[in-house]
């Protein structure tokens, strides 16, 4: 893989038609022609030619955070920072590289990201500057003389754009891996436009009068697309929430007239169980990602709020959603079909494409592909030109893809393959259960058994009788061999800042390593 300091200058390509969607130029590992030109990539005019910025998603809520000083006046203020020309950023041929990190990360977690990406300046919420080491800091907020927001207010409203090329690096996106060693995905300027040309314009289809809310942090590529790329290009508005509970989120949607909501299935499920689904009835579009949304939750939202939730699967490596469906194209329970510009297949153990109805590994190719920064693990993700996501899917005769499980979430018990999400959906349908997660627990006799971690609704007793009731309930919903032989009651399930369930931490618990 060419390093991010190596760029091949490309002539600007025509901008896509305003109402067109889809792009050409498949990319298995990030190779292939760009779908849009440098002129469009630089539209909005921010010259950060010599600056690499580590973005800390602020906790200031709506109206605050890094966006307060990150417009064109903010760029002018940043340009005054003495950042030198060394490192990866100094070698970038056309503009700075943003390293997207979250405010929730602490010094220990930031250290390997900083070591690998070598940023030359960090843009940090003034409350968290102590967590950033070995990088010059530009703080925002606080109101002091060095406050970026205050400095930006004194700058002119226009700032000349750097003439970036479509294949200049724009973003380093650290992944939330399970090994403790983050992988750094590399994304070009053209990639940011590609996700709008595909999912944005073909499936989401924002309008200028939309108000978009998303619970994923801006540092996650799902949040980046929903709160920055798609609204900016459509001329819509983004509504920033701060650590809202699902119940609070439903009220915010209703009170502020949010028209497009993007959040995780867990939030939708808890909104339904809290009796607040009707507060989402004003939505024009609801998007679910991060995990598969169970059909039962989809049907409840359709019945109680009158909305058709747009499900989708994406990946940091591919920047955003690549399989989805909207409106009348939705089939409840199915993730969808490849969005225009992408091709997907189900692969067998030897890399062969499997036919309809056969489970296998999901593989994708399109205008955006996996590029890791100086990491041999790219060869695990990119196989024979395909991006292999680590998910198990089935494709039907009509080309719809149906999620089964993460490939590492399949539970093999006494020779039977058991898909964790199927068991979770059955457990969640018990009246005393708020949410659950299942993993494989080692068992001397069966190899593994299903272990369910369960969060109960208020007032339910976490005792042996409730555990038996849950087990019996699952046996009535599924084949008996799939029921959880172990039930553990917990106060909460571990999740990352975007709300995605961290099954790997639960596996460590049952294995005795956490």
TrEMBL record:
A Pfam family this chain is assigned to: AMP-binding
Region (Disordered): 1-43
Domain AMP-dependent synthetase/ligase: 95-367
Record InterPro entries: AMP-bd_C, AMP-bd_C_sf, AMP-binding_CS, AMP-dep_synth/lig_dom, ANL_N_sf
Keywords linked to the UniProt accession: Ligase
Sample GO molecular function, one term: acid-thiol ligase activity
The protein, known as: Fatty acid-CoA ligase
Species this chain originates from: Kitasatospora cheerisanensis KCTC 2395
